[in-house]
Amino acid sequence: MAKDGIRGTTGRGRIFDSVLDTVGDTPVIRINALAPEGVEMFVKAEAFNPAASVKDRLALSIIERAEATGALKPGQTVVEATSGNTGIGLAMVCAQKGYPLVVTMAESFSIERRRLMRMLGAKVVLTPKAEKGFGMYRKAVELAEANGWFLAHQFETEANADIHAATTAREIVNDFAGRRLDYIVSGYGTGGTVTGIGRVMRKERPETKIVLAEPANAALIASGTAQTRNDAGEAAASHLAFEPHPIQGWTPDFIPLVLQEAIDQGYYDELMPVDGAVGIDWARKLAAREGILTGISGGSTFAVAMQVAERAAPGAAILAMLPDTGERYMTTPLFEGIPEDMSEEEVEISRSTPGYQL
After folding, report:
1. Rg (CA), the chain
2. CA-CA distance, 55 to 58, in Å (whole number)?
3. Phi, psi of 76 (to 5 degrees)
4. In order along the chain (358 residues), what is the average pLDDT of each group of 10 residues?
5. Which residue(s) pair with 79 in the sheet?
6. Could you tell me the domains of the chain?
7. Scanning 8, 36, 159, 351, which has its CA 20 to 30 A from the CA of 124?
8. Residue 254: in which H helix or E strand, if any?
9. Would you say the pTM of this structure is higher than 0.85?
């Protein structure tokens, strides 16, 4: 604590040329009130990215890799299927670089996500809820083929796991240099985070166990059923084990090709299910007890990390990946029961003094 209780800052020592230069270098934060005694718990808060999610890394990597290879031409329209965060990240990148963006998204995802993308200049094409993630993916492919647009291919592109190996994993290795790190816990959407981290940690911190989480009612990997694919490695149909779940951003209705690498190469040590309602509960606890605002996916990851902590050896250090911010879930079950108007207790507080009584 600084003198007189005032914390000082010194700036970053540089001027950023664009918002894109602020992607990455997200903080690892210690968990205090919620951590079980004798165990160290940390979260990597990806909401500190400029568009507030881990997908900013992926979005920037896809566009800059495509520019470097010539796959994306100046002024060409970009199209992608997304549950929201990748689309928001792509909208930020495309706005800064001057590319038109069209996003396809199932109508079941939160309204604030589509509004954020439109705010950033993207066009959002909604697909029927009944068609699930595969439906919005198929629509993006159709639009790309019909119009000559650049399809971002977040579920298949090598640029996905590559950026996590080059940034996310490197940050973790450096932040935990010289100290214990027993577990990393992550969910999966495209699988880029766990695949990229797995590549690096297996070589540089092999003692660190990686725990992968998936929804209890959409346990695609745990089912043991292989994903059907076409010759390009793209998912050919919805996975038979999929059921709708509330953990937006996690586990589409197919196993992405990017994730398949982690499965085939054994980049995770344990697979654990989590119920969406439990994830919501832990997201609320993180907000109320730690002041860390994360979404349902982050709460679900943390829920699994707490299960790991309960059985971990004394002194174990556990890192949970928090993909985004809770503000992205205002119209989802995460905020159900949180009133807009004053509660009875708040009314009583107001009435305790003469001014501004209702």
Report:
1. 21
2. 5
3. -70, 145
4. 81 96 98 97 98 97 98 97 92 98 90 94 94 88 97 95 98 98 97 98 98 96 95 91 91 94 97 97 98 97 98 97 95 93 92 82
5. 102, 151
6. 14-48+172-335 (3.40.50.1100), 55-151 (3.40.50.1100)
7. 159
8. none
9. yes
